[in-house]
Specification:
alpha/beta; seven-stranded mixed sheet; disordered C terminus; binds FE2/S2 (inorganic) cluster
């Protein structure tokens, strides 16, 4: 057995429960897997990150989306090509890399065909994430016969990856509760309704012109679902980026990383660099630190990070450098990522020579935004099937907004189906708009003047929809002026009793409590801390930072508590000189040496960046065709195969559109590729009702290099 040195054995937030272990085989080598994990996670846990080699140029292939969207992770398991990120590993499974194209399995004779079942429901919800579950709860209450189809092995969508406490309002969307726990609450509520059925491990494949939705149930049974109304709550897929080395194993989406780390408890990296300063990138970097992974830096092309400032500040305080107005030039390495090179950019977004920096790392996370998974919605509209969308499939926003809008959609659908659910309160729409809103302007931090008694310091200086601190204060000392929860919270009056509840609940870890009552010269400061208890002890000397991540000094830890109300966070009290006490916002967890750049600079080569990952088509190839006058993406596809691969153009379409823009082609001149069902690859046999594993295995060997997958 090989050692499983890449597993997370303890985590400050996530329970690490013992699971039965068993053997499987990778290239004939026996390895250990844990019950319930995917092939991809089992391989990562055994240190394998290269899953095959591309048929076109032999380039190494590895995981990219970990969400069934890209097919980069395809391996051959027990003779069949499968997406390793979506397929559970089984005891004794023999897994081989996909080197070149898959080969048809040996099959003799005609498999047994079954008639295709049609299931009629009032409402079909595609996607069991925050929006879909919230809608299902309202539909459940209204007595609507509802079916949720989700391609994962448990409900919750991206919520199950979120270890942090949620923003928003306590009343509207569980603010102050961790995403993983919200997933459990929503699932428990949905399961109470007998009229709501759930198909897990089941993938919606397409909407057809007869207004039926094709679903691959349990991974092997094709079913047609005929809904009266469709709700598309399919979430989002991550945007990609072109740069040299962008397809090296070790470059992948932030969501993929969170799946490996937070769902599967695999330490997917040792040293990580993050590209993109939106909430997704900032949160992924924080999750990496929680899992014991070094984060060597984060770069953002804009002059300021687009995510919440409290997320950015939190990261800076932990010791992660944030490079704004910087872009990635290259991921470097022969077979997988060994380093990353970034550079500062000018106002025309061009790299400034001489500003290049290279960091040693084994993983580069791409977190440059999300695109709605909306193809089901558009096809349903085209074919006249009544359809609604909610969550990221409708508009990219926080999960708190997705939950609230899911409730609204649920009620709208119930009404459309003739249920008497009353009017949707007008303030719900207003709340939805607030929860969707982008972060507001940053104001100067308001540090209290006084140095006596006990009071909270709110290191929160940007208007975002968030109010748990105001809800939790028993003295009602923290208030937001007016009705809008995007206002900045303020400490008012003098009634603080030092209960520390505001410190514990703040999702941004942006509240400290300063207590001068025992020793005015050396007050104590309570700091929230979400790292394993073994990383901090009473008596330790720790480096404390201000809000923006500047070092204030070294201070002693005088106590550590884990009260129930802090929900797995620790409340660390330090004793600090009065000159710095009020400005302390956090404890550094990563030493500066971790994030030092290397002295060598890796030069950039243009035009060999990959646009179409499936067919390995470069920027240079696409650009040459655009310069030759092509304006129809279908023609570009026909010539280069860009967009013709297994993912169905999900990744490259936007990148090709970007090259058009770079070349100055007006959008009205461009003809986009035609989107055709299916939207997810599937073995052709399922359409005939032949389950894959039932196919008899005795046919003469068929021609090599033939895909057995539809699309
Ligand atoms: S990494 Fe598995 S489908 Fe994208």
């Amino acid at each position: 057995m090989s050692s499983n040195g890449f597993r997370i054995l303890s985590h400050p937030i996530l329970p690490v429960k013992p699971r039965p272990a068993f053997s499987f085989f990778w290239q004939g080598q026996e390895m250990t897997a844990l019950e319930g994990e995917t092939i991809a996670s089992a391989l990562f846990a055994n240190g394998v990150r290269i899953f095959g080699h591309h048929h076109k140029d032999g380039a190494p292939q590895g995981i990219f989306c970990a969400n069934g969207q890209c097919a980069q992770c395809t391996v051959v398991a027990d003779g069949l090509p499968v997406k390793s990120c979506m397929t559970l590993v089984r005891p004794g499974m023999r897994v081989e890399p996909l080197d070149g194209k898959p080969v048809l399995p040996d099959v003799r004779g005609v498999p047994q065909m079954r008639p295709i079942e049609t299931v009629e429901v009032e409402c079909l919800i595609i996607g069991g994430g925050p929006a879909g579950l919230s809608a299902a709860i309202e539909l459940g209450k209204a007595g609507v016969r509802t079916l949720i189809v989700d391609d994962k092995h448990r409900l919750g969508g991206k919520l199950v990856l979120q270890t942090h406490k949620f923003f928003g309002s306590v009343d509207a969307c569980y603010a102050g509760t961790r995403g993983i726990d919200i997933a459990t609450k929503l699932e428990e509520e949905v399961r109470q309704y007998e009229n709501v059925q759930v198909w897990l491990n089941s993938t919606a494949l397409a909407v057809f012109s007869d207004r039926k939705v094709g679903v691959l149930r349990d991974g092997n049974r094709y079913v047609l679902v005929q809904p009266h109304v469709l709700l598309v709550a399919t979430g989002a897929r991550e945007k990609s980026l072109v740069f040299r080395g962008n397809t090296l194993p070790g470059v992948y989406g932030a969501g993929a990383f969170q799946t490996l780390v937070n769902r599967d408890l695999v330490r997917a990296a040792r040293r990580l660099f993050v590209v993109g300063g939106g909430n997704v990138g900032l949160i992924a970097a924080y999750h990496a630190l929680q899992a014991g992974i070094q984060v060597v830096g984060l770069c953002e092309a804009l002059p300021e990070c687009g995510g919440y400032k409290v997320h950015k500040d939190k990261l800076a305080r932990m010791g992660v450098p944030i490079y704004t107005s910087h872009t990635i030039l290259s991921a470097n390495g022969e077979r997988e990522v060994e380093s990353v090179t970034i550079a500062q950019i000018d106002e025309r977004w061009q790299p400034i020579p001489g500003t290049e920096k290279t960091f040693a790392c084994d993983t580069v996370l791409i977190a440059v935004g999300l695109d709605p998974v909306d193809e089901f919605y558009h096809k349903a509209k085209e074919f006249g099937l009544p359809v609604y969308a909610a969550g990221d499939a409708e508009e990219i926003a926080e999960a708190s907004a997705a939950m609230f809008i899911g409730r609204i959609r649920g009620l709208e659908i119930a009404r459309a189906l003739g249920r008497d659910v009353g009017e949707i309160p007008p303030e719900w729409h207003r709340t939805a708009e607030v929860l969707k809103s982008r972060p507001g302007a940053v104001v100067r931090e308001d540090i209290p003047e006084k140095e006596e008694g006990v009071f909270p310091v709110l290191h929160c200086s940007q208007e975002i929809p968030c109010n748990p601190c105001t809800s939790v204060c028993p003295q009602k000392c923290i208030v937001i002026e007016g009705e809008d929860i995007r206002g900045l919270p303020e400490y008012v009056g003098d009634e603080c009793i030092g209960c520390e509840q505001c410190v514990a609940i703040c999702p941004g870890l942006a509240i400290t409590l300063v207590d001068y009552r025992k020793d005015p010269e050396y007050p104590t400061v309570t700091i929230p801390y979400e790292f394993p208890p073994e990383t901090i002890h009473q008596g330790d000397v720790v480096t404390v930072m201000d809000t923006e991540g500047n070092v204030l000094g070294n201070v002693e830890v005088v106590s550590i508590r884990a009260p129930k109300f802090a929900d797995r966070a620790l409340l660390v009290r330090v004793r600090a000189p009065r000159e710095i006490a009020r400005r302390i916002a956090g404890i550094r967890v990563q030493e500066p040496a971790v994030a030092e750049p290397e002295t060598r600079y890796v030069s950039r080569m243009l035009e060999d960046e990959i646009v179409c990952r499936c067919e390995r088509v470069t920027v240079g190839e696409i650009r040459a065709l655009i310069r030759a006058g092509l304006r129809d993406m279908n023609h570009i596809k026909g010539i280069t195969r860009a967009g013709m691969g297994a993912c169905g153009g999900k990744t490259c379409t936007n990148l090709i559109l970007r090259i058009f823009r770079e070349e100055g082609v007006p959008p009205e001149e461009i003809t986009e590729s035609v989107r055709r069902p299916l939207f997810v690859e599937v073995p052709l046999g399922v359409f005939a009702g032949a389950a894959a594993e039932e196919a008899p295995a005795e046919v003469p060997p068929t021609r090599k290099d033939v895909h057995r997958w539809g699309m």
